[in-house]
Amino acid sequence: MPEKTLIEAIREAIDEEMARDPRVFVVGEDVGPRGGVFRATMGLWQKYGEWRVIDSPLAELSIVAIGIGAALNGFRPICEIQFADFIHPAFNQIVNEAARFFYRSGGVYNVPMVIRSPYGGGISGGLYHSQSVEAFFAHVPGLKVVIPSNPYDAKGLLKAAIRDPNPVLFFEPKKGYRLIKGEVPDGDYIVPIGPAKVTREGSDLTVFAYGMMHYYVLQAAEMVAKEGIDVEVVDLRTLAPVDKATILSSIKKTGKALIVYEDNLTLGYGAEVAAILAEEGFEYLDGPVMRLGGPDVPGVPFSPPMQDFFMPNPQKIAEAIRRLARY
Amino acid sequence: MPEKTLIEAIREAIDEEMARDPRVFVVGEDVGPRGGVFRATMGLWQKYGEWRVIDSPLAELSIVAIGIGAALNGFRPICEIQFADFIHPAFNQIVNEAARFFYRSGGVYNVPMVIRSPYGGGISGGLYHSQSVEAFFAHVPGLKVVIPSNPYDAKGLLKAAIRDPNPVLFFEPKKGYRLIKGEVPDGDYIVPIGPAKVTREGSDLTVFAYGMMHYYVLQAAEMVAKEGIDVEVVDLRTLAPVDKATILSSIKKTGKALIVYEDNLTLGYGAEVAAILAEEGFEYLDGPVMRLGGPDVPGVPFSPPMQDFFMPNPQKIAEAIRRLARY
Amino acid sequence: MAVEVKEFLPITQRHEDLGLSDELVLQMYYHLLLSRRLDERCWILQRQGRVPFHISGIAHEGIGVGAAYALRRGFDIVHPYYRDLALSIALGMRPIEFMLALFGKKGDPHSAARQLPSHFSLRHLNIISGSSPVATQVPQAAGIALAEVLKQKLRPFLEAAGFPVSQEMRVVLTTTGEGSTSEGDFHEALNWAGIYRLPLVVLVHNNQYAISVPVWKQMAVPRVADRAAAYGVHGIVCDGSNVLEVYRVVREAVDRARAGEGTTLVEAVTYRWTPHSSDDDDRTYRTREEVERGKRHDPLPRFRDYLYRRSLLTQRLEEELEEQVQAEVDEAQRLAEEMPYPDPEEALASVFATEDRSGWWGQS
Amino acid sequence: MAVEVKEFLPITQRHEDLGLSDELVLQMYYHLLLSRRLDERCWILQRQGRVPFHISGIAHEGIGVGAAYALRRGFDIVHPYYRDLALSIALGMRPIEFMLALFGKKGDPHSAARQLPSHFSLRHLNIISGSSPVATQVPQAAGIALAEVLKQKLRPFLEAAGFPVSQEMRVVLTTTGEGSTSEGDFHEALNWAGIYRLPLVVLVHNNQYAISVPVWKQMAVPRVADRAAAYGVHGIVCDGSNVLEVYRVVREAVDRARAGEGTTLVEAVTYRWTPHSSDDDDRTYRTREEVERGKRHDPLPRFRDYLYRRSLLTQRLEEELEEQVQAEVDEAQRLAEEMPYPDPEEALASVFATEDRSGWWGQS
Ligand SMILES: Cc1ncc(C[n+]2csc(CCOP(=O)(O)OP(=O)(O)O)c2C)c(N)n1
Ligand SMILES: Cc1ncc(C[n+]2csc(CCOP(=O)(O)OP(=O)(O)O)c2C)c(N)n1
Ligand SMILES: [Mg+2]
Ligand SMILES: [Mg+2]
């Protein structure tokens, strides 16, 4: 299988789905001739033309609303929000509209659309080019929230998202766009939305993560393996709806859990995983449910030492694993 | 002490703060001659004039942005969002702007403002007049989130919010506006933002709640008391920043926890309380951390049987308490 | 400062000059009347405590009926707002379909009894589900209209893949109140509409108030239609209580849209004589005198007078129509009252779609 | 379809007719030059890998300097955006204050090294902190301006409580790009501005692009200033590479605002010759020929020519100024490079204010 980067896998998924279904189109800022500021749509405007790769005005609310409308009229829009930090102007259209359309119409009008957006820190982006926003949306019934951690999943999950009859938020760890590489088959395959995946078997404790942090967690697991700590790693992949079964079966096996995410700690996605474990996994717990997240400050600072201070990394994760293992 | 309703206490707080400080003003839809659709500002336009009680255009984003600007220029705005369901258009201005101003300016520009909004279901409001939105904002560092459960606290906390040098989201359980009554002193007093409160001492288990649900929890506690279950009740009151000390000291005492909220279950505020308990309170836990919340559907339905099905109430809470007590 | 209410004059257009047959104008009258009587009944039911809530389209019927007849009904697509009882009726909604929603009963076709009443949604009439947050439908309508453009541009590819495309574009009509034009949604929608010359009609019901806020606190321009200038779209004002004028103006906008000449912002002026909704008490913010003056904005007597003058309506026919309408409303109420509520557990249904029902508005 | 670039002509205004002294126009020239050289240095530093990011104000200096001089500096309030290096310099920002932010070093006065560079924030110059999400500053600026109105209206109450109010209103200047006018924030801000006749100037830098998106994909009106018509505010266009014209137009807007005659939307036309930022590669979306033509929008030579023609600049003086500016930039760079980074734990500081520092722009 050819090796590809995360961003290549994403581009390939979009390209193949556009070739497969003429109802699929892309809309967003700079997605056209520029190919997106991260190059996710590079070459697609040239290949599919200006009516399938639409440079939107600078207005996120309407990027999403236009997507909703086009979806209602039979299309399969892929809306790009240039950075996750800029999804907030579209919050109302996503949360009050896209998420509630099917329910509010008594199951008559569904909204098949994808909202793609790069998220996450560690790229010297400062407060407004580093945000993680998944927790806001994973809280909203009616939305699916997907975050891939590797190129194989990225391609398969994005294809599944484009074919899903519901609004799917697809957040991409931008730090990993070129950093994370992996084998990706040419041509069509799907990774279904829903199931989490055990990406490393282990017996001492489980680390739950997704996106960029999952990449770091695997590194941290290797580090502590040398010290004799046998870590199981679960890549959550689909944050909403959550895959409780995989979470619970892992905790049943290991008895200890650490959840790693780069979003602010309080009410970040790890809170829900911890709550599930504390309620439905309580009988299996041999230690406190630990969370390692970003500190509760209003953003990832620009200056390198402060940025490093904010971001979880393999060393910090290994340290947290050691602490939990000692318990 | 005179008995007042929740809405009267809120109005009194605004009135007294406006009298006390000419920099305080109110801005929002229909807050002027109409006195607000729930009458929270009734009589204030007549008393303080059109420059201190400003009927805004129908535009939430700018109600908040105008508030931010006025706060930066020395005023103390109280922005009213007519229903919490309509706060989403202002999400960007709250989350990217108000919350981050102080931090992003290195501690130079603070934004002293209050955003008041009625929240919650059970009033035949359907999907868009019933929402609970506290979890979105409690996740955002830089915002304070306050929800009073009774008139005394409402007045004291709202005064504290108006005097706070930070943006404070003040959500009011609208179902309780006229239903919840209590003694409220005339004149000035403060209930500080921050501390939660043990509102009922008990030894068997702790129920954590806030707002309307706290009101129901007290009723449920009475119901099960007759069956010999001795419930401790904690009114969280300030959701952000959270009062961990009170949460942990209660669990240390009772060993069992139920968190009740009317928001959707997944990633609702109870997830954070559960996560805190599962990590920092683990040693004290004698049973699973239970949550009772609204189901994960995209809204509170209008039709009475479905609305009742959605909403937690004293009976459902008592049932959950019994289940936990049996553990 | 009170809201200004103009004197309104008899209708001077002639329906035949607008291409409307005698039969059609009588149908229009019937739809006006049915909407009015249905609406009045809802107020009574609410005041009797038999339903929790009503939000009224009274004095807005001229706009709704005029606009509906200007569309190719069943072909064009409509994304309305809560004052559009008459629009929905004129598009084909039956009174029982409204009453089921009003009572929150089983079988409500709009939302399965989940939304407040007056949140119109009827798939078979091309009426798209709306929400309560105002103005959100306007950029969505732009998206629906953009899809119509895309269909024409991508016709060969779509048809090759089995997605038929109609020969002409469907026109999208969306409505909103004048207050709601203050929202960012309105701006962004009109901006798209201008850039892509969308087959879209944005019809603003200017009833002088947004709940209690008069239009002069809402915007500094004298006319909502002035806002068109910012977007390169057409802008026009019409008298909302003159059903024939609304028809003419919307018809021109629809024809322009279908011809690829882009979007029109139509402002239809009326006056809201009822309180905002059954939850409102308008005595706090406007005088009774002003409301009395405002009641001159009544499409019904003006249209009735016209029909009498043109000898299309007789006293006998008028009475017959009244009776017919009353009977329809009675029957709808009776059926709705008899209908059970949905089961509580239905609250859990249709969170996620498991198959695509969004459909494809294709050939026809 | 390329962006249209007009031919630009020598400056024909006379500064004395605008009430500007010889000394002041030389100062303006110095500020233009300093901004340009500082900006050029930032590009070099970024290309050398010594700083991670630069977003440039090149070709925007005429707008910034013209606008700054039109304000009552130190009295009026400014809520700028990231192209406002020259505006900030002309308001009094020292090169070192910029360089510290560029390097993310300790002592950065804008954000304590938390934000990307070019997010200007200087309390002592009445420059308000801006964010990256575009257009958010525009309605905030409307709020700052509304507070100026409130101060005048509430003067007796405020002064009695110990809050002094200046005799005249402060004018608020906010800036943004033409692309950013598509956001709902812009609409809502201008709507408030019109209703309350706010002492506000909204200065739009129209540099023809929003990253890669040309202005004709951004709006259907020929001029950004056309948008004023939707709000009942004044609208005017000026040539952004003619510093004296910008001065004149903004000055009129400021005077109008201070006199209580409301808001002006000023469109200042230029052309962005650099890529959007150091992260951008503009070769994908525009030709080199277009960019070459665009470079005619250069405020610096045009103003220099003017000063020569008016015998205010000599070759000797020009060289002296160049040297002075280079020395300042060198010195700023040296100091910034020597400065340490903040401590890691400073990331935790100032989440919540414990006392009010928002302050009160009062008498003066
Ligand atoms: C985003 C949002 N904010 C506030 C409300 C509350 N609200 C409902 S209708 C209304 C006034 C609407 O006025 P207008 O647009 O003029 O329409 P009208 O009701 O007069 O037809 C308001 C403020 C809402 N539904 N949505
Ligand atoms: C809300 C938001 N969306 C997207 C972006 C990403 N972005 C940064 S600058 C920019 C283009 C701005 O164009 P314009 O307003 O014309 O200003 P210019 O950069 O040309 O001066 C974009 C899309 C952003 N910063 N904020
Ligand atoms: Mg209205
Ligand atoms: Mg630009």
Give structural notes.
The complex is a heterotetramer, with 2 copies of chain A (327 residues) and 2 copies of chain C (364 residues). Chain A has 327 residues and is of the alpha/beta class. Chain A has 2 domains: 3-183, Rossmann fold; 197-326, 3-Layer(aba) Sandwich (Rossmann fold). Chain A contains 12 helices and 14 strands. Chain A has a 7-stranded mixed sheet, with helices on both faces. A 5-stranded mixed sheet of chain A has the order 9-11-10-13-14, sandwiched between helices. In chain A, helix 2 (44-48) links the parallel strand 2 and strand 3 (53-55). In chain A, helix 3 runs parallel beside helix 4 (91-97), helix 8 packs across helix 12 and helix 9 (244-254) crosses helix 10 (269-280). Chain C has one domain (15-339): Thiamin diphosphate (ThDP)-binding fold, Pyr/PP domains (Rossmann fold, 3-Layer(aba) Sandwich). Helix content of chain C is 40%, strand content 9%. Chain C has helices at residues 22-47, 61-70, 85-91, 95-103, 137-153, 155-160, 184-196, 243-258, 288-294, 299-309, 315-338; strands spanning 77-79, 172-177, 200-206, 209-210, 213-214, 234-239, 264-269. In chain C, the strands form 2 sheets. Chain C has a 5-stranded parallel sheet, with helices on both faces. In chain C, helix 1 (22-47) crosses helix 2 (61-70), helix 1 packs antiparallel against helix 10 (299-309) and helix 4 crosses helix 11 (315-338). The mean pLDDT of chain C is 96. The chains are: A alpha/beta (327), C alpha/beta (364). Chains in contact: A-B, A-C, A-D, B-C, B-D, C-D. The interface between A and C is large, with 46 and 57 residues. One magnesium ion is lined by residues 177-179, 207, 209-210 of chain C. One thiamine diphosphate sits between chains C (83, 132-134, 176-180, 205, 207, 209-211, 272, 276) and B (29, 58, 60, 82, 86, 89).
